[in-house]
Inverse folding.
């Protein structure tokens, strides 16, 4: 009993330290940035202080036009990520057996291609609206999920599959009862990577060719030399990534706890 309490205490301390450092390290970076700006080491018109950017964000956030741009980015980001998630998991689980011998060489060829180079083709095919940007997000975010699903499914113990088949489960049924629960930790790790990639990709797509969205706002501000307004979308897309990552971590904890039970 004492050993269990001691182990629980160490685990709690480890989680607490992890939470503290996850807050302290960005805070230190912001303090250094603020200090450099306050000391006059960098011209404010080139690099505004984080407090100035934050107050500007508070000012523009209630603006309906700004909320429209934010909403457009979120639609593209979440739609692209959702399609990439469904596509990557479906292909990865469907090719978890011998199909991976065919699928994995194709992934090795396609994954290193910079997907942003495909954006002009997507614009010609899908137009300048949501679809081309969502397609670019899908093309970039699907590979981490697909690879994570393939490797997670490959790591499943064969004895678990044999036991399921011996109990009368079909091969299709065993995908959902054995392979998916076992591969879930790897899949969720791939989702975290894909989510960060999706944030970067949608922002780049809006910078290149868009009339709305956070990326468009940044380019528009840069062209008119409104430096603080240029940093607002950058800080906001970073905050969105952190917020969505926190949601995904909470979902991961709940899902894995549910499968453990």
């Amino acid at each position: 009993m004492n050993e269990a309490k001691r182990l629980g205490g160490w685990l709690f301390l480890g989680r607490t330290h992890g939470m503290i450092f996850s807050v302290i390290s960005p805070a230190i970076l912001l303090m250094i940035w603020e200090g450099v700006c306050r000391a006059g080491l960098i011209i404010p018109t080139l690099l505004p202080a984080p407090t100035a950017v934050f107050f500007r964000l508070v000012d523009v956030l209630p603006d309906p036009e700004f909320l429209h741009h934010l909403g457009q980015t979120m639609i593209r980001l979440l739609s692209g990520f959702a399609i990439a998630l469904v596509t990557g998991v479906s292909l990865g689980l469907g090719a978890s057996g011998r199909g991976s011998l065919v699928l994995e060489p194709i992934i090795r060829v396609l994954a290193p291609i910079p997907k942003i180079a495909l954006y002009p083709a997507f614009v010609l095919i899908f137009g300048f609206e949501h679809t081309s940007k969502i397609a670019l997000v899908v093309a970039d975010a699907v590979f981490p999920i697909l690879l994570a699903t393939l490797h997670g499914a490959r790591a499943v113990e064969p004895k678990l599959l044999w036991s399921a088949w011996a109990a009368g489960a079909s091969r299709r049924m065993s995908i959902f009862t054995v392979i998916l629960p076992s591969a879930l930790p790897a899949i969720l790790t791939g989702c975290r990577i894909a989510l960060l990639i999706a944030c970067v990709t949608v922002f780049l797509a809006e910078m290149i060719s868009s009339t709305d969205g956070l990326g468009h706002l940044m380019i528009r501000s840069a062209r008119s030399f409104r430096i603080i307004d240029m940093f607002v979308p950058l800080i906001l897309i970073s905050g969105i990534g952190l917020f969505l990552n926190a949601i995904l971590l909470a979902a991961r904890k709940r899902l894995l706890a549910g499968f453990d039970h």
Q: What stands out?
A: DSSP finds ten helices and no strands in the chain. Residues 171-208 form the longest helix (38 residues).
